[in-house]
């Protein structure tokens, strides 16, 4: 009888310990491995970036973020000296600023040929909650397509991904602003 | 049983593991959220286990026994409610860390932005209410009926919280297979409950049309209720078992109570003997002839099958004589050598004693009198050994008040009865 009295509490304590152990086993090694990487690759310059691991949308490679301290920068992908290339055909990739949303940072990279937007990639999208990752995975390809179609930051909000859409617009706009 | 529970929990953990990217735990907030999800998954799984434990599932009843299932249900209930609260706390704190919000702000934003969260919130409230009313302290104050009605609301709570698992649960949103399996788990649980807690009793009722035949006073505060119906023997009830009865009359409708059979049911009759102690039991004495009765069961493993040998000692205290009387009947019918020791406060309290005297193969030993008046305990080591000298070679069945049962078990152990030859059952439903 007396053993059974506290069995419920014991089971709970045991379960809690299990949850802690399992969570540590799952997350522990990563927290140690990731910590220095986060420090080194602190690209965004934002305060306490929510997701240090850059989980891009499908189709995007995790391109090293830009060099600017404000989180934006320009890099020419054309290996040739830009001066020697044909001015019209100059291909430039610009990394946008990090837009903070309530679900996490959004950062976009746009590749231009001349003044034409030819490629849009998502460097960061909300992924801290697994739900957010789901939403991002669905929304970012649509947003990228919209940007290409509009050739500007005037894009429609993807339903169910209001914040991500806003962040996307902001990051794309920062690129367009840089390009003048 | 315990093994199945552990395996189930391990499967849930494995499912969580596979669905949680290690990257999610890179921040304290992400790790807290991940752990919160695991707590939630485990709680949701254990909820189903909880329902099945008290779902009158025949295989569980046979394998474990109703009393231990109820005991497990009670223990596990604590864990489930605490796990639900842990889940909520971790999700809110984790989310607050991720969003750099205050926990309050995060709680509000979870409620307003995530699907099915408001109903989940209400459902959680019901869980907590059910948990709180089942705490030992609260149970002392609450009547069985009030507790039971509150307990029923947990079904609403489960229904309300199911939505958010499927609609907002990170592990289910993107995975149709997981969603299907999880839904199937809940549907199967619901089907089991409907079958064994609703359908089977109702069908049995239609078949048996059980009614109160008459109520017979057996001793001060002890009455027997005779029930009559068709094909009662189809219940296959055994001596020592109990049934859940719901008298279809005002005041009894909402709750089914456990009653021990005080004789092996015949083709058309069964009898339960009740100590008229609580409000409810006292009402039983006033039941009218012809009152319809719903029966569930039989339950319990306190039967002749538990006997290891052919000689038994049955010790009854107070109303415990009911199941002992039925058990003695069955053991005698099997040709066992049976001794019944019957304790009561006084001679008048020796309910059903008449039925046990003069039975061939049965020695009936009435031990009336309060310990204070006798100056000794007739069930202590010395007296029991004198009354039943060959006790060490017998199976010992004990039924009576908890303290008496515990004392007799100790004495029997001290007199050399092996642990496995001592049989007793907690006669408590809640």
Q: What portion of residues of chain A belong to β-strands?
A: 15-25%
Rg of chain B, nearest Å: 26 Å
- Our measurement of the CA-to-CA distance between the termini of chain B, rounded to an integer number of angstroms, reads 20 Å
Tell me the overall shape of chain A.
elongated
Cα-atom radius of gyration of chain A: 21 Å
Strand order of the largest sheet of chain B: 9-8-7-10-11
Protein name (chain A): FMN-binding domain-containing protein
Organism (chain A): Cellulomonas uda
GO molecular function (chain A): FMN binding
InterPro entries (chain A): FMN-bd, TonB_box_CS
SSE diagram, text form:
The complex is a heterodimer of chains A (180) and B (430).
Chain A: H1 2-5, H2 7-40, E1 73-76, E2 91-95, E3 99-101, E4 104-113, E5 116-124, H3 130-150, H4 162-179
Helix pairs in contact in A: 3-4
Chain B: H1 2-19, H2 28-53, H3 58-64, H4 66-99, H5 103-113, H6 117-134, H7 136-141, H8 144-168, H9 170-173, H10 176-208, E1 211-219, E2 222-228, E3 242-247, E4 257-260, E5 269-275, H11 279-284, E6 293-299, E7 311-317, H12 321-333, E8 337-344, H13 353-356, E9 362-368, H14 371-374, H15 381-387, E10 395-399, H16 402-414, E11 422-424
Parallel strand pairs in B: 7-8, 7-10, 8-9, 10-11
Antiparallel strand pairs in B: 1-2, 2-5, 3-4, 3-6
Helix pairs in contact in B: 1-2, 2-4, 2-10, 3-4, 4-5, 4-6, 6-8
Give an overview in words:
The complex is a heterodimer of chains A (180) and B (430). By secondary structure, chain A is of the alpha+beta class. Chain A has two domains: 39 residues; 107 residues, Sufe protein. Chain: A (Alpha-Beta Complex), CATH 3.90.1010. Helix content of chain A is 43%, strand content 17%. In chain A, helix 3 packs across helix 4. With 430 residues, chain B is α/β, with parallel strands linked by helices. Chain B has three domains: 173 residues, no CATH class; 93 residues, Translation factors (Elongation Factor Tu (Ef-tu), domain 3, Beta Barrel); 121 residues, Rossmann fold. The longest helix of chain B is centred in the first third of the chain and has 34 residues. Chain B starts with a helix and ends in a 6-residue tail after the last strand.
